[in-house]
Amino acid sequence: MGTSRRISGAAAAASALLLAAALAACSTEPEPSAVPSAVPSAGTGSAASSPSIGNAPAPTPTPSMVAGGSAVENKAYFDLVGKTLFASAASANGKTIIDTLAAAGFDKAAMQVTPDRTSNGGAVDSILFSVRLGGQCLLGQRGPGGFSSAVQPALADGSCLVGKTRPIDW
Question: pTM for this one?
Answer without folding.
Answer: 0.66
